[in-house]
Structure formats: C-alpha cells, structure tokens
Design a protein that fits this description.
With 422 residues, this protein is α+β, with helices and mostly antiparallel strands. The protein is built from 14 helices and 23 strands. The strands form five sheets. Strands 10, 11, 14, 15, 16, 17, 19, 22 and 23 form a nine-stranded antiparallel β-sheet that branches. A hairpin with a 3-residue loop joins strand 10 and strand 11. Bound molecules: adenosine monophosphate (AMP) and glycine.
C-alpha cells in the first residue's frame, strides 16, 4: 500500500515510524515532513493548503491511503476535497472536524447528546459576556470559539483576568477565532487525554495519556502545545474508561451519525475527572502532540490495519494490542518557547541518544543544515523512553535528554510527576 502522511511535527514522526514498520506499507511519503520522517520514508515538499496539488500528487503516485496528522487541514476540508477525487483519507470531513474547529459546536453537541461537560454561555458581543462573568464570578474559563493554536483558552482566576480576556478576544486579539466566545464553569479535578478510533459508527478505545501544558516545572508559566506526556494515565482505570465510553464518547458518535455527519478518524477527548465523574473539556479530531509520541511506541497492532479498518467502517471486527509498558516523552524546546523561539542552533548527540536501550528520539521542529541538525521551531525534539513503570520510562527519557548536546534548548525536568507521585 502507498501511503501519504500529512504533517511535520513530532506526532508525524511517531506515526511515520510506526507506519514504516508495517509489512503492508510499500511506500511512505510525508508532506512536508521533517528530518526524522525522512528516515522512515520520502519527504515531499507539497503545499498542503493547496488541496488540488495534494490530489494530483496522490493520483500520480497511486496513493492508497492519506493520513492527516494535524487539525488545520481537516478543518479546511482536505478529507472532503481528496474524497471527491476518490482518494481514501483517514481523518474526518470538514463538518465532523467542527468538533475541534468550533467550541460552540461541541457544546451544542454535548447538550443534544447529554454529554457531561462544564456549564456554559455563548456570546457574540462583549457586554453580555462581561455581565455573565460578573454574575458567575471567578474562577471561570474564557474560550475563543475557533482554532487559535492553543492560545484560545484563558483559565481566569480573577474577575479582572476574565474581563481582560473577553475584551482581548472581542477586540480581535485572536482574529476570527474570537468572534464568538464560550464562557465555562471552571472544572476541578485531574485532566486526562483519551484517544478513540472511530469509523462513523463504531468507536474503539485506544489509550490514555497525560500531557504537561505549562512551560515550567511544577506546572508554572504560560501554556504551550505540550511539554511532555506519558501513557497510560493511572487515573484512567478500566472502570473509568468504560464510563467515559458510555457517557461521553458513544453518545457523541451516535449523535454525529444521526445528524448525517458521521465522525471517522481519531477522536481525542480532553477530560476532567471530577469528584462527580468524567466531564468533557474539549474534543480534538486527531492524535495529540506529544501524546502520539507515547502512544505509538506502546502500540503492538499494525497501524495500517487499524486505520484502514476505520476508513472502511470495519472497526467492529478489529482487535488491538498494547505493550504492557509505560512510555514517557520529554519535549526539548528552543530557547524562548512559547514566545518566538530562537532557531538555527545546532543540536548534537541525537543519534547517540536514540541508540540507547528502549529509547526513541522523534523530531519535531528540526531542519537538516548540511551535516547538522538545527532547531527550526518551538518544540524541537520529543525524547521518549519505555519502561515497566512510568518512573523507569522517565529515567530512560531523561538519560537520553542528557545525552543530547544542545545549549540552545531546554526541557521540563518533572514530566510524569503526577503518576510517579501516586
Ligand atoms: P486547550 O483548548 O487544549 O488549549 O485547553 C486549554 C486548557 O485549559 C485545558 O487543557 C485545561 O487545562 C484548561 N481548561 C479548559 N476548559 C476548562 C474548564 N472548563 N475547567 C478547567 N480547566 C479548563
Ligand atoms: N497535546 C495537546 C494537543 O495535541 O492538543
């Protein structure tokens, strides 16, 4: 099978690494890819916002399956446009991708499907939004409706912070994403990411993971795309997983189908495990990054079989196996991330780190510059360890981090602290 994978981050290197191990994968192309994916297949310099150019490439190269990594192409309708050419795509249609593309869409779905989530209000003008938060009080959560590259959510601890966030969003601080604002009750509990494979009708649980969103040790500093993750998350017991499937995932999938917009792809539920049970914080319509960098190393089943079964509506008969091991990944980021990162700095020792036992180094924002690997983005490497416990996986990951010689980078030193503290 000829496969085209769309994306260029650590998630896509992890997917490419796993796909390339499948005996069913005869050729793997990654667009645009990174120096890590180049070790798993052929990088192609396609402009993925030009859907017709992607379609032409697929036809010319007899691509049997396109796998879309990030959300932006899905929300932009890449799956629909390729589908019109008869090209098979793993990933939701534009309408189904609204589960990530619009927070108001997802809140309305929760109402319709009786999915437990935070109480909320929707606003298209600042005055009623300000009146609402003054009535509700802080802490309270202010969210831009649309995609805002991880900057669209403000967990306001004070009323002043909430009012500032509302004014920032309605004065165009986040562009079109902030034209509508959702204001939510602040949920208290432990956060967990849960991944499910969907074929429009069936939903197959994949695995759980826990991300570390803040830039600094001890969960301090500004939010990032994620500074590290581990899987499985101990808070997600088997009983909790069943509850989440019954109360959250299945009603959502069934409602999407009933509406005539079935969801096919990876559904990533951001959950808060509160003292009254699991509640949905948000949906994403793709694998998480860096969560994918801990899921793929644990997956034993052939990924091509799984994704093809999802595309063909055959998940009902599909089984899945995971390694009985924990995985933990540490993001190495370029200086000044999540502000404008300092790029171009030389990274040494990546191969030496990757050669350590039970260790994988996934590339994210890197670039080949002659013989050197240099930083080319905010999150640059995802250094993953496997082990019998989260603690053992953590030790492997940090041993590998310490093998990498990169004065221009930094990482958190406490990835996994919650699981290890238990
Ligand atoms: P994201 O949309 O991924 O940028 O999410 C931002 C983060 O804000 C989430 O991962 C949660 O930590 C937090 N968050 C979002 N909504 C709520 C809520 N209703 N209550 C508490 N925390 C929230
Ligand atoms: N790590 C969170 C995300 O991928 O959205």
């Amino acid at each position: 099978m000829n496969i085209l994978l769309i994306g260029s981050g650590g998630r896509e290197h992890a997917l490419a690494w796993k796909l390339s191990q499948s005996p069913r994968c005869s050729a793997l192309f990654i667009a645009p890819g990174n120096p890590g994916t180049a070790q798993c297949g052929t990088n192609v310099a396609l402009n993925v916002t030009d859907h017709e150019a992607v379609a032409r490439f697929c036809i010319e190269n007899a691509i049997d399956l396109v796998i879309v990594g990030p959300e932006a192409p899905l929300v932009a309708g890449l799956a629909d446009d390729l589908g019109r050419h008869g090209i098979r795509v793993f990933g939701p249609t534009q309408q189904a991708a609204q589960l990530e593309g619009s927070k108001a869409f997802t809140k309305a779905l929760c109402d319709e499907a009786h999915v437990p989530t935070a109480r909320y209000g929707r606003f298209t003008a600042p005055e009623p939004a300000l009146a609402y938060v003054r009535k509700q009080g802080a802490p309270i959560v202010i969210k831009a409706d649309g995609l805002a590259a991880g900057k669209g959510v403000v967990v306001a601890m004070t009323l002043t912070e909430a009012e500032d966030a509302i004014r920032m969003m309605f004065s165009g601080g986040l562009g079109k994403a902030g034209e509508e604002v959702v204001i939510e009750e602040c949920l208290i509990g432990e956060e967990v990411s849960f991944f499910v494979l969907c074929d429009g009708e069936n939903a197959m649980p994949l695995a759980s993971a826990q991300d570390h969103k803040r830039v600094g040790d001890g969960d301090t500093g500004p939010n990032t795309g994620g500074m590290g993750a581990y899987s499985p998350a101990p808070v997600m017991t088997h009983a909790m997983e069943q509850r989440v499937m019954e109360e959250i995932i299945l009603p959502s999938i069934q409602t999407m189908k009933k509406r005539g917009t079935p969801f096919k792809g990876v559904l990533f539920a951001g959950l808060m495990i509160t003292h009254t049970g699991p509640k949905l914080i948000e949906y994403n319509v793709r694998f998480g990054d860096p969560e994918c960098e801990v899921l793929m190393p644990r997956l034993e089943t052939d990924l091509v079989d799984l994704l093809e079964a999802a595309v063909e509506g055959r998940l009902g008969g599909q089984s899945i196996h995971w390694k009985d091991e924990a995985a933990l990944t540490v993001i190495m980021a370029a200086e000044n991330y999540p502000g404008t990162p300092k790029t171009g700095t030389v990274i040494k020792g990546v191969e030496k780190a990757a050669a350590l036992a039970d260790t994988l180094v996934f590339h994210a924002g890197t670039k080949q510059d002659g013989a050197n690997i240099v930083a080319n983005g905010g999150r640059v490497l995802a250094v993953t360890g496997l082990g019998k416990s989260v603690a053992e996986a953590q030790k492997r990951a940090y041993d590998a981090v310490d093998t990498i010689d990169w004065p221009g980078g930094f990482c958190r030193r406490d990835i996994g602290h919650r699981a290890i503290g238990r």
